[in-house]
Amino acid sequence: MDFQVVVLAGGTSKNLVPLVSKEVPKALLPVGNRPVISYVLELLELSNLKDLIVVVEGQDAAVRVGSWISGAYVDRLHVEVAAVPEDVGTAGALRAIAHHLTAKDILVVSGDIVSDVPLGAVAAAHRRHDAVVTAMLCSAPVSGPSESGSSVGKDKAKKPGHYNIIGLDPTKQFLVYIATELEKDIRIQKSILRAVGQMEIRSDLMDAHLYAFKRSVLHEVLDQKDTFQSLKQDVLPYLVRCQLVIGDASHLSGYSFSAQNNIIHPSAELGSKTTVGPHCMLGEGSQMGDKCSVKRSVIGRHCRIGSNVKVVNSVVMNHVTIGDGCSIQNSIICSNVQLQDRVVLKDCQVGAGFVVTAGSECKGEALAKKEK
Length: 372
What we know:
This protein has 372 residues and is an alpha/beta fold. It has eight helices and 30 strands.
């Protein structure tokens, strides 16, 4: 399936002292009289995912884990053991071995997961949806999940009273919101609710520390967000927020992401010094003037956009005309709308065919033609 598998096996986590030591790193702790890492290795073998990178914190721990794997799985798995510095976090561990990741998709799994879920099925679901990221969730124990983390010290244990909020679309197949380690009530922005339409909020689910990533996107996030340390707390929420612009629409559109991680139709025209950022879509036949900026937004087909226009976190539908010097933020512009020069919109919805006069500044408004 052209998947590379990364097993985040931890090291000698201080949270597990005195159970772990230099002689017995976390991955070799016995569960049912077997080293805990043996469960995930055999699950991978059953799924015919046999090309693995096992990431271990600390050189000494890596040598011990590698020695055990070599003896137990000789001629069964192809395993490369990579040592990374201690306390770099799960995202930091992946960043440290990024140059080894070359496959189209990367399956990242905790070295301490004990499960009977076929990992090949997770990989197949990821490929079927052509997803940027796929995460496995499971029901949280009644007593509350013990969040010891999958690999690294920076993924700290969950404190009493902390909980996660998961937002799912109506089909329960797509993550549309995630917030972790909450201690109090959460407020969800109206722009998010407008973007997803309907959302089912769950607090009874937990992250199983099993992810499939599109490699090109994972590399970009790890490279550009060098402060991200945790897959669960940093990378996954970031990717879920990004998908609110185009998300799964990328494969439904029939287009492919460019090297800049956006979708620009070949017939679209960009003016001088105009930039279209990652996670954006620009439809066929649309034209943009000079010195424009588009960030986290979708622009439809056959739009005419002037110069010095800024579009941020917005949706612009088809056949829209936007004059020079306009600024659009957190807004939805329906088809056949005309924005005259120097219009400023923030948190607005503009109905089909509406004309916004030059110099107008609107915030939190719904603009539409009067019904006859």
